[in-house]
């Protein structure tokens, strides 16, 4: 397969001497696309910050290859997205139509919610094969190539982190998260979920996310063009709580769903998953260090949710679902949302089928596994728990 023509990452860029510098990664992306990476735009600071941070990380040889592929894929996507928007200028200002965004904390049942909403034919969700190669949707001749690429991505993901298959199920053609699109902006906490990138994480925490969200919006317009007209666009990214103000400002007409679960359960569950994913690229993962990082980040996300939603004009755009209620009657909670949103819910009980099996392997975790102080976090999460009754 010709990677330059297809845009897929079958060829591996391997630097046996260690993690490559910025210029080498850019050169590889330009080989694959036949285009300049930055062209008339300024180099993206997040990219250089992330490369610098990864060069400081304790990566295995497999980890180096995987992170190289991740970065080159994002650079290739940036080029192809830019070219797609240039050759289809009408997309730049296209109306996204009705938009629903699931914007709660991770590990709150939102993936299950998205899977169920994807069964409603009036909804348009984004599939993993689309998210990994968004510009490929301009011209459907590459659909099979993109699907094959995504299947290989999933196989490799579960091969390197077998524990993730029970903790987080996904398929190449199933609905997935928009953090794959944010990867192309080089501004997302997904990178610190995947690897120990401390200096990058510190930079990101102080970064104004507005530009990244505008790029995200442009990618959605590109992807939206392939869906049936009139469909409701349903999106999800578990990292939105960190940048909630930018999200609501970028999508002033969207409706939002937040799933809620006790953060004392969310935090260790998320730490466990991060450990599994970081182990794909490093054999020096330290649970205590992972716990310290995500403790800071989760407190920041929870505080941000509470703070942003104090604004009544913003708060009334959110529909809240407690995980405890969702587990009892998931379809009923979706019906409640549709009725709140003014959408027709009459077909849902016959259209949506909950096929998730209750007997699958359990994801085991605890606060103690990550040296997390229960008393400290009870105090830190108290305002959120009181506000959302979880």
Descriptive report:
- The chain is mainly α and 390 residues long.
- It has one domain (95-388): Rossmann fold (3-Layer(aba) Sandwich).
- 53% of the residues lie in helices and 6% in strands.
- It has helices at 3-6, 22-33, 45-56, 61-87, 110-117, 128-132, 143-160, 164-167, 179-182, 190-194, 198-205, 210-224, 244-250, 263-278, 287-308, 312-315, 323-328, 330-341, 348-351, 374-380, 382-388; strands spanning 99-102, 123-125, 232-236, 255-260, 318-322.
- A five-stranded parallel beta sheet has the order 2-3-1-4-5.
- Helix 3 runs antiparallel to helix 11.
- It is globular and about 50 Å long.
- It starts with a helix and ends with a helix.
- What do we call the CATH topology? Rossmann fold
Instruction: Tell me how many strands there are.
Output: 5
Strand-residue fraction?
Answer: 5-15%
Question: What multimeric state do the chains show?
Answer: single chain
| Overall geometric form | globular
Category by helix and strand content: mainly alpha
Structural key phrases:
single chain; 390 residues; mainly alpha; Rossmann fold; 5-stranded parallel sheet; 21 helices; disordered N terminus
Secondary-structure topology with pairs:
Blueprint: H1 3-6, H2 22-33, H3 45-56, H4 61-87, E1 99-102, H5 110-117, E2 123-125, H6 128-132, H7 143-160, H8 164-167, H9 179-182, H10 190-194, H11 198-205, H12 210-224, E3 232-236, H13 244-250, E4 255-260, H14 263-278, H15 287-308, H16 312-315, E5 318-322, H17 323-328, H18 330-341, H19 348-351, H20 374-380, H21 382-388
Parallel strand pairs: 1-3, 1-4, 2-3, 4-5
């Amino acid at each position: 397969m010709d990677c330059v023509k297809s845009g897929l990452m079958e060829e591996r860029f391997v630097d046996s001497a260690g993690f490559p510098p910025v210029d080498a990664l850019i050169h590889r992306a330009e080989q694959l696309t036949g285009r300049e990476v930055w062209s008339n735009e300024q180099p993206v600071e997040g990219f250089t910050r992330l490369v610098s941070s990864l060069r400081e990380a304790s990566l295995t040889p497999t980890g180096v290859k995987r992170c190289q592929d991740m970065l080159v894929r994002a650079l290739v996507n940036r080029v192809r997205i830019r070219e797609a928007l240039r050759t289809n200028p009408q997309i730049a200002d296209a109306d996204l139509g009705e938009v629903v965004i699931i914007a709660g904390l991770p590990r709150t049942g939102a993936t299950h919610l998205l899977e169920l909403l994807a069964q409603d034919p009036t909804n348009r969700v984004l599939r993993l094969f689309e998210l990994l190669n968004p510009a490929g949707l301009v011209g459907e001749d590459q659909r099979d190539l993109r699907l094959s690429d995504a299947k290989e991505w999933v196989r490799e993901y579960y091969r390197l982190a077998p524990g993730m298959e029970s903790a987080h199920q996904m398929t190449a053609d199933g609905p997935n998260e928009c953090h794959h699109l944010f990867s192309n902006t080089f501004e997302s906490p997904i990178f610190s979920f995947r690897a120990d990138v401390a200096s990058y994480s510190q930079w990101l925490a102080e970064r104004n996310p507005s530009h990244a969200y505008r790029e995200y919006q442009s990618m959605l317009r590109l992807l939206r063009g392939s869906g049936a007209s009139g469909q409701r666009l349903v999106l999800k990214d578990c990292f939105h709580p960190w940048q909630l103000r930018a999200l609501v400002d970028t999508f002033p007409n969207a409706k939002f769903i937040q799933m809620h679960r006790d953060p004392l359960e969310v935090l260790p569950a998320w730490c466990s998953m991060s450990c599994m994913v970081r182990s794909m690229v490093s054999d020096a993962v330290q649970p205590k260090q992972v716990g310290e990082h995500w403790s800071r980040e989760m407190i920041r996300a929870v505080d941000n949710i509470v703070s942003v939603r104090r604004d009544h004009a913003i708060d009334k755009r959110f529909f809240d679902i407690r995980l405890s209620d969702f587990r009892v009657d998931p379809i009923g909670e979706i019906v409640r949302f549709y009725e709140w949103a003014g959408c027709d819910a009459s077909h849902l009980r016959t259209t949506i089928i909950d096929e998730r099996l209750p007997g699958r392997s359990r994801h085991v975790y605890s606060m103690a596994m990550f040296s997390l102080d229960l008393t400290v976090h009870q105090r830190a999460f108290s305002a959120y728990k009181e506000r959302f009754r979880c």
